[in-house]
Amino acid sequence: MITAIIVLFLLQFLTLSALVILYLRLQKNEQLYEEQRELVEQFEMSMQLYLDEIKRENEQLLERLTERPRPQKETEEHSTSEMKPLVIPPIEDEFVATPQSYASHLQARLIQEQRKKMTALEEINEVSPPVSQQEERVELPVQEEEVTAQVEEKEETYEEQVKRLYDEGESIEALAKRFDRGKTEIELLLKFHR
Question: Which residues form a coiled coil (predicted)?
């Protein structure tokens, strides 16, 4: 009889300990579920903020595009009737570009530098006395293949530019202004590249 009581007592103790273990696991699962739900809510909120900022920037871009004056047809007719040399517009010192247009920007800048050197050489030739044909050899500043090689060497993606400038100590706000992007986009880009 004593052995039966001891066995029943042990069975009750094992059952009670199993119930406690199951309760603790259930609590742990509920806690994990709550943490996951909070993370999902935070992610949804950050994505909503990001999308709102992109929407606002797109609206600003559309406003800028509609504000630009369009050239009149009269000026186009005059330009087609008269043959004018090809003129490349000047390039600003501070250039904000996508990776695709960055290479063409560098090519245009190098071509402009070549043209400036050529006009300077032409001005010197006009001012200086005539020179014999042997002395008249003038090397072109940079060949086209060299220009493309230099452009390929200097190419740096948008992400690399942002990361490099941030590592050099530039603030997120300054990067957002420089690349004409939102602060949230710059922050996300930096977080993803760490």
Answer: 26-60
